[in-house]
Write a structure and sequence with these properties.
The N terminus is likely disordered. Helix 10 crosses helix 12. The protein is 18% helix and 33% strand. A hairpin with a 4-residue loop joins strand 4 and strand 5. It has a 17-stranded antiparallel β-sheet that branches. The protein is an alpha+beta fold and 1258 residues long. Among the domains are: 232 residues, no CATH class; 248 residues, Beta-galactosidase, Chain A, domain 5, CATH 2.70.98; 226 residues, no CATH class; 169 residues, Jelly Rolls (Sandwich), CATH 2.60.120.
Length: 1258
């Protein structure tokens, strides 16, 4: 008999790109790079995206010009990417029309490959696009563009800036902080500034833009032949000089155009609990004279109805679906949505002002007076103030519904204590057009364009070939019709939810609800409170940009822009400040990670981590030239560089390997290095990479490997540095991914990008089979029906995340598949099944054999719910010991191996050698694992047939379970339960020919399928004695295990038909005999049957002792507990209740506690028949957590949320022990203090003393 503990290493890559794994492991362990190098694609030659320098190349450009737009041309700014090697100079670029004639363009290099002087990666192009025209961009060493004679001129002096567009002359002052000092069209004045931009607070105090030299700065930011941008920065101050808001304005002026585009951003610099705003206004003053009329748009889109009014008049969009038009103070008309423009007419001509996204960003107001037009970014004529407090933002009904504690201590004491908005920004965009045409038709058309402006984008095939997005595959409905349709439908789910849940308004527009609940009674969806909005989670802010790059579709571009603006403004802080009375400092450039997300800016500022996505800012700038995105990108970058510096926010994530946090940091820092070539970012990235190498060296060369958090960072760092150590980790990770075992039990565990990159690095097609299987399952899961309420939902999955992951990363798999000469088959389901009991093997000849066994304890995906975060502490304290044994047909132990419970790991693999012996059935079993829930599974090749016993057992992660039908009977029965949460599971029975005998789908919510589902199955004569399959789909996610029982046939099953055998006899699998009493306790043990309780009244004697009271502020309740519930019972069960306290078993998931505002989810599973010491400790004066669960002296549990309750009078007159769970209990104590320290020293159920309230001291 022998056994050995072995180190398991994933299989070595074969074929092209093979490498010696032992050498890689040696490099990882010694932290010496195998090959120091520079940046690299990493691709094999046949997959390279690098191109030779061309003398001439041509890129088709796509012009999206709305047919309804009644303007002959429109100025466009767009980005074009280039692959490595293609282009050295932006001077070798021109744009030609359909006839091959060059058109005037302005070109700016914005990014380079492989260094600041490298090949061009991105250029930004400005041009005037004509309706109906076609264009292409030509590039190459032989391409020269003609010298451009521009109408656009700039005169820059000490006093100000004057820009002439050829149509307009616009003056900006350096002395006075007007948005524009004056505008002339054809020499005639059209705008003469008399008022400054201003803000009014709740007290009527007016804050105007300051003229102070230290506040106000004017500069020409962009100076080109076709577009000029004049930027101003400054402050809003009151008469006393108090600053309220910081602002940035950018005025875009275009050659030959009679309009300007204004982008205005303000940043909050006040305590939003004390100051509220009544008005945020930008005035546009007409020249003095008699104003005659105004024309307001009354709908949306081109050709919308208009209303002509006398003056004064105002249009207010006060909600998503309501606007009102007032004339001289009287209601003229009202309706739902307006695009947002007004034309102001006088004897001087026409001035039109359009406010983009007026209904989406409500409330907004456009006011026309005899003096001109005022764009109110917050309406002056509204009952609502700009009040950032949660109660105001949400309104009383939603505030009441969402006001609660949902995670740890977040929002304890009320949402209004966590909603300080200092540092928040808001950006608005306007068009101001001028005309001599008194009917204003041209100005109206210009304003209408702001709702749906024309745009140009490079051909999507070219975009994807350049490698700037990685090896992304363009939209390809001819090759992948079903996939592309599914992607379209899935994205439509986001669009539907935005409208359905009214994700619009000043604070919400651009974001979408993170997770929703279905209301069956009202047939609608409702927002869930915790992390209410998606923000940047899981790359949802990157996904629309990627989808736009591969399709050129406006719907993706518009979503991407709206989302980027929202996240940059609302979900970040743009100041560094300590707000008096607010517990969380503001750090400029930091992001609000949610901490509930009930209020976008609620809670604290995150440091750096898994969801630190800055790619959207880059795409926004590179693809559209939106300069604020570039500013915010740098602002956020400085925040990361300052982490851990004295006086700044600390980050433990940068100091050690923190799995997904490290992956996110690596992705982020590599992006900064590529965009800026600032060595500081690369240095930080190197430290994160070293953390990965160290972690991989400890775990067989493998670390966490999912697309959402890890793979993009690992891959891009390898490409940025050429460090072969990182490539080794990537390939090892992707070999591990082929096992089919998700890193997480939810959509975040999928990986498409990683395997595709491994294929490009090696040419090994085996990497692609598993993600292809996942993608095909996704296509089956997504509802493509016509019902809008359910269309786009991947059934049984969390739709927001599941759709995002597939839309963002599956296109990389499509690109890899498109390179293949012939299709590959999706990988078959991998047998990840594991047994809670034993595995039986047939050894018909008694030969010696080796059997590799994997054991798993408290590890995903085999255990769902909350992970056991305190596993390491539990291991050390409990001194856990167990062994895996092999029993021969007579029940003798013929091989064994100790299980080494490592604090750093909760699983392992043992190889056991079984000597030659008696022929018959051998059993692999666990011994001594009574204190922990263990599962075992065969790992690797086993030379014999094998089955799982079904009695007193549960099988985890089985896709198919095969049972043999009875030889003589006409029917047999199966019964099953599913330990699953929040997942839709289909259970089918298939006959030997694969025909479905019966099938049922179970939509499982927050409680498992705890009642037996019984199916009596008739067996036709020709099917008797055949193998039938019980199929479970999907096996992953939060579907932990199936409890399967059969009657009328042999109670064994296998996951493969070729592995099945029928045992000649069935050994009895006996449960350990439970101890009668726990150690060191001499008190009587009380039996509490299921369905019964016993109660300890307040102030009454119970068995000679007295319970006199309890300190509700601080105390400890402890006892010894031995569960007696049936191992097959997977329902929840009360252990005790006491007023607002409830301690209960959460199925076979863990032990949970609710106490007032505290809600703790512990992954510790109280096994039947095992004594455990359990304590509940509370201290409502503690600075952080308020309550704790201690089991055997170790503090367990992860604080989550619950409705806030009163912190006093939380007990009741009776402590009720028991309910629907059976157990033995003894050693009950109630103390008036926190006993965690004593419990940690092993002082469990100590004798009563002066601090014991129950039982009283002798």
């Amino acid at each position: 008999m022998s056994a050995r503990q072995v180190l398991r290493v994933p299989g070595v890559v074969t074929g092209a790109g093979a490498f010696v794994l032992s050498a890689v492991m040696a490099a990882l362990c010694s932290f010496v790079s195998l090959a120091e190098g520079q940046s690299t694609e990493g691709y094999l030659p046949q997959f390279t995206r690098t191109v030779p320098r061309a003398s001439s190349g041509r890129i088709p450009l796509r012009l999206d010009y709305p047919e309804e737009l009644e303007l002959p041309a429109w100025p466009v700014t767009f980005g074009v990417p280039f692959p490595r090697g293609a282009l050295a100079s932006a001077g070798n670029i021109r744009v030609v029309d359909g006839a091959g004639i060059g058109v005037p363009v302005q070109v700016l290099r914005t990014a380079t490959w492989d260094g600041p002087d490298g090949d061009i990666k991105w250029v930004l192009v400005d041009m005037s696009a004509r309706k109906g025209a076609t264009y292409a961009l030509e590039y190459g060493t032989a391409v020269q563009r003609a010298e451009l004679e521009s109408q656009l001129t700039v005169a820059d002096s000490v006093d100000g800036v004057t820009v002439s567009t050829g149509a307009l002359r616009v003056e900006f002052s350096r002395r006075k902080s007007h948005l524009m000092s004056g505008v002339w069209l054809g020499g005639e004045p059209k705008l003469q500034a008399r008022r400054r931009m201003d803000v009014v607070d709740q007290n009527g105090t007016r804050y105007v833009t300051s003229d102070r030299p230290e506040d106000y700065r004017l500069e020409v930011e962009t100076r080109g032949a076709l577009r000029v941008v004049v930027k101003a920065t400054g402050w809003y101050r009151d008469a006393a000089g108090t600053g309220l808001l910081e602002y940035v304005t950018r005025v875009h002026l275009y050659a030959g155009q009679p309009f300007v585009r204004v982008i205005h951003t303000f940043v909050v610099h006040f305590d939003t609990d004390k100051t509220f705003l009544r008005d945020v206004a930008i005035p546009f003053d007409a020249p003095t004279g008699t104003a005659r009329k105004a024309v307001f748009q009354l709908g949306t889109g081109f050709g919308a109805e208009v209303e002509r009014t006398t003056l004064p008049a105002r249009l207010v969009q006060d909600s998503t679906n309501h606007f009102s038009l007032m004339e001289a103070g009287e209601l003229l008309t009202e309706g739902k949505r307006v695009g947002g423009w007004v034309v102001h007419g006088s004897e001087h001509g026409v001035m039109a002002v359009a406010l983009r996204n007026m209904w989406q960003d409500h409330p907004k107001e456009l006011e026309a007076t005899e003096d001109g037009v005022i764009a109110h970014l917050w309406p002056a004529h509204s009952e609502r103030m700009l009040d950032f407090r949660a109660s105001s933002v949400l309104g009383p009904e939603r505030y009441e519904r969402l006001d609660g504690v949902y995670h740890q201590r977040w929002y304890e004491g009320g949402l209004d204590k966590y909603d300080q908005a200092m540092g928040l920004a808001k950006t608005n965009e306007l068009i101001v057009a001028f005309s001599d045409d008194l009917d204003g038709k041209g100005a109206m058309a210009t304003c209408a364009a702001q709702e749906k402006p024309p745009f140009v984008v490079a051909d999507s095939d070219w975009m994807c070939r350049t490698d700037v997005f990685g090896p992304l595959h363009p939209r390809d409905p001819e090759r992948y019709p079903e996939i592309e349709k599914t992607f379209d439908v899935a994205f439509g789910r986001y669009e539907f939810l935005r409208d359905h849940l009214d994700n619009y308004g000043f604070f919400d527009h651009g974001d979408v609800n993170y997770v929703v609940n279905w209301d069956e009674e009202n047939q609608r969806w409702w927002e869930r409170p915790w992390r209410r909005m998606a923000s940047r989670f899981y790359g949802i802010s990157v996904m629309p940009w990627t989808m736009f790059a591969r399709s050129g579709d406006r719907r993706y571009l518009q979503w991407a822009i709206d989302n980027a603006k929202h996240v940059m403004d609302i979900d970040m802080t743009h100041v560094t400040a300590d707000v008096p009375g607010y517990p969380y400092p503001k750090w400029k450039g930091g992001r609000f990670g949610g901490n509930g997300g009930i209020i976008h800016y609620g809670g604290n500022v995150y440091d750096v981590g898994c969801d630190s996505h800055v790619t959207p800012w880059l795409y926004y700038y590179y693809l559209t030239g939106y300069r604020r995105a570039w500013d915010v990108f740098h602002e956020e970058g400085e925040f990361y560089l300052n982490l851990n510096k004295p006086g700044f926010l600390g980050s433990g994530h940068l100091r050690r390997y923190a799995h997904r946090m490290t992956g996110g940091s690596l992705r982020l820092l590599t992006q900064y290095w590529w965009a800026t070539w600032d060595q500081r970012y690369l240095d930080l990235a190197h430290t994160q990479a070293e953390h990965c190498y160290e972690a991989a060296a400890k775990s067989n060369g493998v670390i966490r490997h999912d697309d959402v958090y890890m793979n993009p960072g690992l891959v891009t760092y390898y490409q940025a540095t050429g460090d072969e150590r990182m490539k080794a980790i990537i390939l090892n990770n992707m070999k591990e991914a082929q096992s089919g075992r998700l890193v997480m039990g939810d959509p975040r565990g999928y990986t498409f990008y990683g395997p595709s990159m491994a294929y490009y690095f090696t040419g090994d097609t085996s990497y692609l089979g598993r993600p292809l299987a996942w993608l095909q399952q996704y296509l089956k899961d997504v509802n493509v029906g016509e019902d809008p309420l359910h269309r786009g939902i991947p059934e049984g999955h969390w739709d927001m995340c599941h759709n995002c992951v597939h839309l963002l990363y599956a296109p990389y798999l499509l690109g890899a598949l498109a390179t293949l000469d012939r299709p590959i088959e999706p990988a078959p389901p991998v047998d990840l099944s594991a047994s809670n009991s034993e595995v039986w093997l047939s050894n018909p000849d008694g030969r010696a054999f080796d059997v590799p066994v994997e054991w798993v304890c408290y590890k995903r995906p085999y255990f769902i719910g909350v992970s056991l975060r305190q596993w390491a502490s539990h291991c050390r304290r409990a001194k856990l010991q167990a062994e895996i044994v092999v029993l021969d047909p007579d029940g003798n132990t013929v091989a064994s191996a100790p299980v080494r419970f490592d604090p750093d790991a909760s699983s392992g693999i043992v190889d056991m050698s079984v000597p030659e012996g008696k022929a018959g059935m051998y059993r692999v079993a666990m011994r001594g694992a009574d204190k922990v829930p263990m599962k075992i599974r065969l790992r690797g090749h086993v030379p014999y047939q094998w089955v799982y016993p079904l009695e007193r057992n549960a099988i985890s992660k089985a896709t198919d379970l095969y049972v043999r039908t009875p030889q003589a009977a006409e029917a047999f029965t199966i019964r099953y339960k599913l330990l699953a949460l929040r997942v839709s599971v289909e259970v089918s029975v298939l006959d030997s020919q694969g025909e479905i005998v019966v099938s049922e789908r179970h939509k499982i919510g927050s409680s498992p399928l705890g009642a037996w589902v019984t199916k009596e199955l008739p067996v036709p004569e020709h099917e008797r004695g055949k193998l039938w399959c019980i199929r479970v789909r999907p096996p992953g996610g939060d579907n932990q295990e199936m409890l399967l029982r059969v009657e009328g046939t042999v109670p064994v099953a296998s996951t493969r038909p070729d592995a099945f055998f029928t045992p000649e006899s069935l050994p009895v699998v006996r449960a350990p005999v439970p101890a009668a009493a726990p150690p060191t306790v001499t008190e009587p043990v009380r039996v509490v049957p299921a369905g019964e309780t016993f109660r300890i009244p307040r102030g009454k004697r119970v068995e000679g002792t007295r319970y006199e009271g309890v300190d509700e502020t601080r105390g400890t309740l402890e006892f010894w507990l031995r569960p007696d519930w049936d191992p097959d019972d997977i329902t929840d069960g009360n252990i005790l209740t006491w007023g607002q306290m409830r301690l209960y078993r959460r199925s076979q998931v863990g032990t949970y506690l609710k106490l007032g505002a505290a809600y703790l989810q512990s992954g510790y599973w109280l096994k039947p028949g095992v004594w455990n010491h359990v304590a509940v400790v509370w201290d409502f004066e503690a600075e952080r957590d308020k309550a704790w669960i201690c089991i055997n002296g170790t503090v367990f549990g992860k604080p989550y949320g619950g409705r806030r309750g009163e912190l006093t009078n939380w007990t009741s007159d009776e402590l009720t022990i028991g309910g629907n769970a059976a157990f033995h209990i003894t050693g009950l104590r109630i103390w008036d203090h926190d006993r965690r320290a004593q419990l940690g020293k092993g002082l469990l159920s100590s004798p009563p003393d002066q601090h014991s309230l129950y039982p009283a001291a002798p």
